[in-house]
Design brief:
The structure holds 2 protein chains of 2 kinds. Chain A is an alpha+beta fold. Chain A contains 6 helices and 14 strands. In chain A, helix 2 packs across helix 3. Chain B has 3 domains: 217 residues, NADH-ubiquinone oxidoreductase 51kDa subunit (Rossmann fold, 3-Layer(aba) Sandwich); 103 residues, Ubiquitin-like (UB roll) (Roll), CATH 3.10.20; 110 residues, de novo design (two linked rop proteins), CATH 1.20.1440.230. Chain B has a 5-stranded mixed sheet. In chain B, strands 3-2-1-4 form a 4-stranded parallel sheet, with helices on both faces. In chain B, strands 5-6 form a two-stranded antiparallel ribbon. In chain B, helix 6 crosses helix 9 and helix 15 runs antiparallel to helix 18. The relative contact order of chain B is 0.12. Classes of the chains: A alpha+beta, B alpha/beta.
Chain lengths: 316, 449
């Protein structure tokens, strides 16, 4: 066991735990994570928004770490002291990274299906600036339909590699990955292959932004107009435990059950996700709570907006 | 004339083949190592020599070797990093092209010291003709019994392979090199675990630069003590410097560390002064990634002491007034060169070479390049300079591998030392597009006029 102090709160966690998971054990001021996914091996370390400052490496080594470290892939040591929101340096760096993530993002939230449950939206709401300093052309890609159910909208992608790991670890016959490099790197099935296997739909759930969307749900409704209900069914491929998103009696879409960090508890199969679209297919368990951090539940701002009122010159 | 360790016989053409190489004392270290020394003794000699990694970071090689995890029965690997792609650095090419057996000999000796049975030379894809040279050298070494089963009748066996990369700068980063060698996409890994614990195929691995490996035979032959007496302070031995830019004699020079920078630039033995008798404007002393030094800081440090070619002296003053020895790509600019254009050129390289794995580097390198392009082509604004400063700060230190730092440092140093030149570009948009070089010495270094 290792004792680690994060933002002046001490917690004891097993050896080998990452700083991020230790922070999750505390439960407050958890660093955001765009690419880390606890169910996917090897994920994390890429988006850099979970950077924290280690002011004391361990009991044996009282020096801090020279750079900010990614909390999702740095393991704790006994006596480690970590600063997350208490460090202005971390806040500054995180703000910068959110800005960098957004410079090539199309910001097409008004027409994006992910809006309302988008991690990038939450993140820029919490850390981003209200304006952009990037005035160059943003990079653009063509939309690709990968199979009958999934559409890839590469413009919105932040290259978190989650879907690549999902395809690698969850399904047989990996057909998609990352091609090219630098800021023209893209998720691709290499010359518009289709993704065709029973668990491919999970790439939609793991995508933190609106890059991979459900073609059976596209443009049907906004997330905040639908009502999430926990439901289950007998499925021979997966656990059958899902969340139904209902509008009236109509099932608009089916997703896995996501926890407070936006990670699904159990991956579900494509039959459950795309084909059981009648309420009678499911046993409804009850309504599902939406976390207060979500934009869905934000009807008012927690702070005053800095609105500039135009001053009209009075004629002398 | 300083002591030469690597390039003593470089001008003899027959040294490329194994017969000529042996004639000039080659492969002596293998016989000495295998017959008279234990692996630990060699590591101890390397430690004693104070040899530091010649790839850029300058990490003590002996210490790196001692980190190699020996507690498991997994095979251990030695990789030679010949993915030399830093703009301005071309020193490894010379060794591999002219004296390939020096590298092969170093690899055998180092492999024996580390208990390695399979070693790889990872060479950049653009050096395909050198790959043939190395393959030829390795075949000759096999034929002579320096490689293969039971080398020189001892119990030690080693296989050495050359593997070409696809031509990506990022594969010079040791973990990206390992990924690439494994046949995957060359993305750097997250450290820890370091390669010395889990590297190639999850086995303990040491990655060393070509020049570092090539120093090992000398250390075995002459002893670490002798080697440590060459050089100055903690910068022991010699270093290959690839000098280029506006100098009379560009090329690769082997210098004894501690040589004054002034002597290196102006003496006829080395660079031979600035071409055309012009004024010196700036120097990038260690390859494109290190901060640029303006004229007043090249020959003297901020404290007024002469600047020497050594790890410590070049870094004196931190990044405020110093730089780094880096990989030894010494780029000299005369008074007519434009720092903005040069910075844009470097930035364009980093934009092109970023692997795109982590977001600050992927997005930041492109942004920096676009701002610099705008400034250089006369469309910049004054705010762009501060914006550029801000973007490089967001990239530096926040990335998985040192690539982010390498892309941010040249930009930061250019703004730090040549801000007036950036402002000149904004204020004179027409003139800066008309003449492709900068404004010359009058505006860049007013105190010189």
């Amino acid at each position: 066991m290792a004792k680690v102090t994060i933002d002046n709160v001490t917690v004891e966690v097993p050896d080998g735990t990452t700083i991020l998971n230790a922070a999750r054990a505390i439960g407050e001021n958890v660093p955001p994570a765009m690419c880390y996914y606890s169910k996917l091996k090897g994920s994390g370390g890429k988006c850099r928004v979970c950077l924290v400052k280690v002011t004391k490496s361990s009991e044996a080594n009282p020096r801090g770490m020279p750079k900010l470290v990614a909390s999702c892939c740095t393991t704790v040591a006994d006596g480690m002291v970590v600063e997350n929101v208490t460090s202005p340096e971390v806040i500054e760096a995180r703000k910068g990274i959110v800005e960098l993530l957004l410079i090539n993002h199309p910001l097409d939230c008004p027409v994006c299906d992910q809006a309302g449950e988008c991690h990038l939206q939450d993140l820029s709401y919490e850390h981003g600036a209200a304006t952009t300093r990037y005035d160059f052309e943003r990079r653009t890609f063509e939309k690709i339909d990968i199979g009958p159910y999934i559409q890839l909208h590469m413009n919105r992608c932040i290259l978190c590699y989650r879907c690549v790991y999902t395809a690698d670890q969850l399904t047989d016959g990996r057909v998609h990955g990352v091609i090219n490099r630098g800021d023209h790197a893209e998720i691709s099935t290499y010359i518009s292959n289709i993704i065709d296997n029973d668990f491919s739909g999970n790439v939609i759930d793991v995508c933190p932004v609106g890059a991979l969307t459900d073609r059976t749900f596209r443009f049907k409704s906004r997330v905040w107009f639908t009502k999430p209900m926990d439901a289950h069914c007998d499925c021979d491929k997966c656990s059958g435990k899902v969340t139904l998103w209902l509008q009236g009696e109509e099932v608009l879409r089916v997703t896995g059950r996501k926890d407070q960090y936006g990670e699904v508890d159990e991956f579900i199969c494509n039959t459950c996700r795309f084909e059981r679209k009648k309420k009678s297919d499911w046993v409804i368990e009850g309504p599902r709570r939406i976390g207060t951090h979500s934009v869905i539940s934000q009807n008012h701002l927690p702070y005053e907006l800095n609105v500039v009122n135009p001053q009209i010159a009075q004629p002398q | 004339m300083g002591k030469k360790i690597l390039l003593e016989h470089i001008d003899k053409p027959e040294i490329k083949g194994i017969e000529g190489y042996i004639k000039y004392g080659g492969y002596r270290s293998i016989e000495k190592a295998l017959k008279k020394m234990t692996p630990d003794e060699i590591t101890e000699e390397v430690k004693k020599s104070g040899l530091r990694g010649r790839g850029g970071a300058g990490f003590p090689t002996g210490m790196k070797w001692s980190f190699l995890f020996k507690g498991s029965d997994k095979p251990r690997y030695l990789l030679c990093n010949a993915d030399e792609s830093e703009p301005g650095t071309f020193k490894d090419r010379l060794i591999m092209e002219k004296i390939p057996h020096l590298l092969v000999e170093g690899m055998i000796a180092s492999s024996y010291a580390l208990g390695v049975r399979t070693a790889y030379i990872y060479i950049r894809g653009e050096y395909m003709y050198i790959l043939r040279i190395l393959e030829q050298a390795i075949a000759e070494a096999y034929a002579k019994g320096y490689l293969g089963e039971k080398i020189l009748g001892s119990d030690y066996s080693l296989d050495l392979y050359v593997h070409p990369g696809g031509g990506a700068y990022i594969c010079g980063e040791e973990t990206a090199l390992i990924e690439s060698l494994e046949g995957k996409r060359g993305n750097p890994r997250i450290k820890p675990p370091f390669p010395a614990v889990a590297g190639l195929w999850g086995c303990p691995t040491i990655v060393n630069n070509v020049e570092t490996i090539a120093k090992v035979p000398f250390i075995i032959n002459e002893g670490g003590e002798t080697y440590s007496k060459i050089g100055i302070g903690a910068s022991t031995g010699t270093k290959l410097i690839s000098a280029c830019g506006n100098i009379n004699k560009p090329g690769v020079y082997e210098i004894e560390l501690g040589l004054p920078v002034e002597e290196f630039i102006y003496s006829d033995e080395y660079c031979g002064g600035i071409k055309g008798g012009k004024q010196l404007k700036a120097v990038v002393p260690g390859g494109s990634s290190v901060p640029i030094l303006p004229q007043r800081l090249v020959t003297k440090t901020a404290a007024g002491t002469p600047r020497l070619m050594s790890y410590e002296s070049l870094a004196e003053g931190g990044f405020q007034t110093g730089s780094m020895l880096g990989s030894g790509g010494f780029i000299v600019f005369d008074e007519d060169q434009c720092v903005v254009r040069n910075t844009w050129n470097f930035s364009r390289f980093y934009h092109h070479e970023s692997c795109g794995q982590c977001s600050p580097c992927r997005e930041g390198t492109g942004w920096m390049e676009k701002i610099l392009h705008r400034l250089e082509h006369g469309h910049g604004h004054m705010e762009d300079i501060d914006l550029l400063w801000d973007v490089q700060r967001k990239v530096e230190g926040n990335t998985i591998c040192p690539f982010g730092d390498a892309s941010a440092w040249p930009v930061a140093a250019a703004i730090r030392h040549f801000r007036d030149e950036f402002e000149w570009h904004v204020l004179n948009p027409e003139e800066c597009t008309r003449r492709n070089y900068g404004m010359g010495v009058a505006a860049a270094e007013p105190e010189l006029v």
